[in-house]
Write a structure and sequence with these properties.
Bound molecules: thymidine-5'-phosphate
Helix content: 40-55%
Mean pLDDT: 95
CATH topology: Rossmann fold
Strand content: 5-15%
Radius of gyration: 16 Å
Structural class: alpha/beta
Low-confidence stretches: none
Shape: globular
Number of strands: 5
CATH class: Alpha Beta
Order of helices and strands: EHEHHEHHEHHEH
Number of domains: 1
CATH superfamily: P-loop containing nucleotide triphosphate hydrolases
Oligomer: single chain
Strand order of the largest sheet: 2-3-1-4-5
CATH architecture: 3-Layer(aba) Sandwich
Length: 206
Amino acid sequence: MTAPVEGRFIAFEGGEACGKSTQARLLADALGAVLTREPGGTAIGAQLRALMLSPDTHALDDRAEALLMAADRAQHVAEVVRPALAAGRHVVTDRYAGSSVAYQGYGRGLPPDEVQSLSQWATAGCWPDLVVVLVVPPSVSVLRLGGEHDRMEAAGDEFHARVLDGFLRQAEARPDRWVVLDGDRPVDEVHHAVRAVVRERLQLLP
Ligand code: TMP
């Protein structure tokens, strides 16, 4: 008997307004994949997202924030990611565990390895086959974000510089799974680069 074929799991990561939502959608379309996101990829997650990103939630403790992100992820994996992969669908997610390590770990200052372990527990060890980090200069994110900022976007330049550093360090530590791409290019060019990586790393797409 042959083993059932599982889909492949791809995550887009990066700082604010780096273009990952657009690129996740384009890749999901090209692959016929399930497109999802964190936080907020489920009905329960949508409530957690609204709570976590609201500027009214200014009293949220850093560890509480990490646990809420992990709760969103646990629900997302149980309800969306794992069932889709098990059914042989590819899954493309706009943010995943790398965001917790970058934002709650490097950004907020919680130990990154502990934040990583929290995701390991929350997802029962569900890790992407490929993580694509899109990098844009801070000046470009500011321009793309415009005037209204949610609680994370409003966290300040130094915070966001640490977050970017957190993504780059994760990519450096896992070159077999992580790829960093320049997001400061026209959408089509970035998509072309993403397709090339997916073709080379996962042998998907013609
Ligand atoms: P988005 O608006 O890019 O979808 O992301 C929502 C915000 O949530 C963004 O500022 C990054 C943040 N975030 C974390 O801080 N930790 C996480 O684990 C995830 C998934 C997102």
